Amino acid sequence: MAYKEIYDSWKADPEGFWMKAAGGIDWVKSPSRALNPDRAPLYEWFSDAEVNTCWNAVDRHVQAGRGNQLAIIHDSPVTHLRKGITYKELQTRVASLAGALRAKGVEKGDRVIIYMPMIPEALEAMLACARLGAIHSVVFGGFAANELAVRIDDCKPKAIIAASCGIEPNRIVHYKPLLDGAIDLADHKPDFCVIFQREQEVAKLIEGRDFAWHTFQYGVEPADCVPVSGDHPAYILYTSGTTGAPKGVVRPTAGHLVALNWTMRAIYNVGVGDVFWAASDVGWVVGHSYICYAPLIAGCTTIVFEGKPVGTPDAGTFWRVISENKVKSFFTAPTALRAIRRDDPDGEFIKDYNLRHLQALYLAGERADPETIQWAQKHLNIPVIDHWWQTETGWAIAANPLGIEALPVKLGSPSVPMPGYDVQVLDEGGHPVSPGTLGAIAVKLPLPPGTLPTLWNAEDRFRKSYLSHFPGYYETGDAGYVDEDGYLYIMARTDDVINVAGHRLSTGAMEEVLASHPDVAECAVIGVADELKGQSPLGLLCLKKGAAKDHADVVKECVKLMRDRIGPVADFKRAVVVDRLPKTRSGKILRGTMVKIADGADWKMPATIDDPAILDEITLALRTLGLARG
Ligand code: COA
Ligand code: AMP
């Protein structure tokens, strides 16, 4: 069947469509129906089913006789290691870790924070939680102790599983002091921590609280898979919103299994025995869905890559991994390709490797600029597929479903909506606009299986953030348009979220950090265009009267403060001191206008501006940083 027929068949009978997709999952108790609308506009999927995620990702493949197939390949140029783990080995390791967690009191519904680099043990920790029905929350290693503390206080974990260190090309990331600092800062204290000691750094353990990964598991009874109900939270993943407090996106168990399993064939065109690689990090949603869960659920081999697109050791690393491991579908962020292209503009490294198994390259996480797509098309000579999704959805809202039908690629568009998503472009009043007209992108409720049913412990915030602006719709926070052929174009965020190197960051959270500097009276953070990273954060600081410090010192302190409070991932390296910030007469800071000025784009004087002269001052200040050159 072609894409259109499949999409239309979903629209005609969503219940039938998802019940059929549910056939790809092993149930302890099969669902009697797909959608549960009892609490609309809050929806659940497969809520009367019973199921276990780990069984579907691991055990069922062993039971089907594929125990000797590789489940995980760890390819780590930063440690010069490469090793494989079979499904049988994975089952043994996960059952053992789950048994040890259970012996220490972790049960269905308990939260467990995972703070680990790109090593197979991170996936094992996630799967061990899933085995017990415990709810994991993975925190990205590039966040500072303070951000980890905020997450500890929000989800109140019984245990934290961490590694002794992570390895960045230019330094060792000392996870353990960050973890200890976070536990000190947090009001909630976990009962215990499990630390995976890496060779590169052995961390000091706190007696009675910390246990070493291996000794912790010594002599314990392995745990079997614990059935959970379909709507049981599989995990919580925090993501940036408008304010400083991150949003705890909840992932429901059954919908997650059904939807991810469906996407592996329909979108990525892979199945049992194929090698699939998503070059992301387990701390992000791409890592949850497409490094850990989906490839394993589908019986593929997944690659855990511990390195960077460039510099580990060179811009040929990705092509080496693809060639050596016979990767069939590969997923990365456009920024990674831009980094490779910058170092290897003519694609010389690509020629060194045999990439004949690679059928397609998938891009997501930020807007894929046409030049980058064209560069990849030219040098790889395979379909380059942009697809659009968010932490909240867990899988693609729009894509080019290669496993169903290879649709024509249109540069700058992530193609068409996937079954389950009725995507509409709305004007401010909530009315659908005509093709070609820019508007807010919204999805008609209910969202499909696997998407967020709520935010952790924050149902009101969920309703306010996503459901209240356009009643009957989920508001994506992205703006764009649809063309005459139904292709979507994602142009910008409608909120204060920026996207730096495929990482989603809140300018609101960054402003809170700057405002806490003793000399800063007022501030704004904007995302300015960056050739490599898409956007880059920039601070504008107004100092308190009488602040005698040198401006350069204040800027330096603010940069350090951001690194200490949010973490290196914020990539906050630039700020400038100004006398005043441009505002509307009602006092709203005109961030959008400043972005346009900084980027040297066309801009119009806002009708509501309080004092137009301030924009000249801002332009001059931005020019000192090499910006605002239209
Ligand atoms: N743990 C600790 N620190 C981390 C980290 C981690 N897991 N990941 C990144 N950082 C640090 C980096 O070391 C860097 O620190 P520095 O300021 O001391 O140099 C900082 O965070 C910013 O990192 P990054 O944005 O990655 O910039 P970079 O200059 O190191 O690398 C790219 C640039 C383009 C190569 C890199 O951003 C990249 O590979 N991006 C792809 C992103 C991606 O896959 N996103 C997932 C969405 S699909
Ligand atoms: P995250 O939740 O971190 O995955 O970030 C989601 C946001 O990244 C989306 O809301 C978009 O703003 C942006 N994004 C992700 N994929 C794409 C894409 N293919 N094209 C344009 N923007 C994207």
UniProtKB/TrEMBL annotation:
GO cellular component: intracellular organelle lumen
A Pfam family reported for this protein in Swiss-Prot or TrEMBL: ACAS_N
Any one GO MF annotation of this record: propionate-CoA ligase activity
InterPro entries per the UniProt record, alphabetical: ACAS_N (IPR032387), AMP-bd_C (IPR025110), AMP-bd_C_sf (IPR045851), AMP-binding_CS (IPR020845), AMP-dep_synth/lig_dom (IPR000873), ANL_N_sf (IPR042099)
AMP-binding enzyme C-terminal domain segment(s): 510-588
PROSITE patterns assigned: AMP_BINDING
Record Gene3D superfamilies: 3.30.300.30, N-terminal domain of ligase-like
Coiled coil: none
CDD domains, A to Z: PrpE
Acetyl-coenzyme A synthetase N-terminal domain residues: 3-57
All residue ranges annotated as the AMP-dependent synthetase/ligase domain in the record: 74-444
Family: Belongs to the ATP-dependent AMP-binding enzyme family.
PANTHER family the UniProt entry points to: ACYL-COA SYNTHETASE, ACYL-COA SYNTHETASE SHORT-CHAIN FAMILY MEMBER 3, MITOCHONDRIAL
Protein name per Swiss-Prot or TrEMBL: Propionyl-CoA synthetase
Upper taxonomic lineage: Bacteria, Pseudomonadati, Pseudomonadota, Alphaproteobacteria, Rhodobacterales
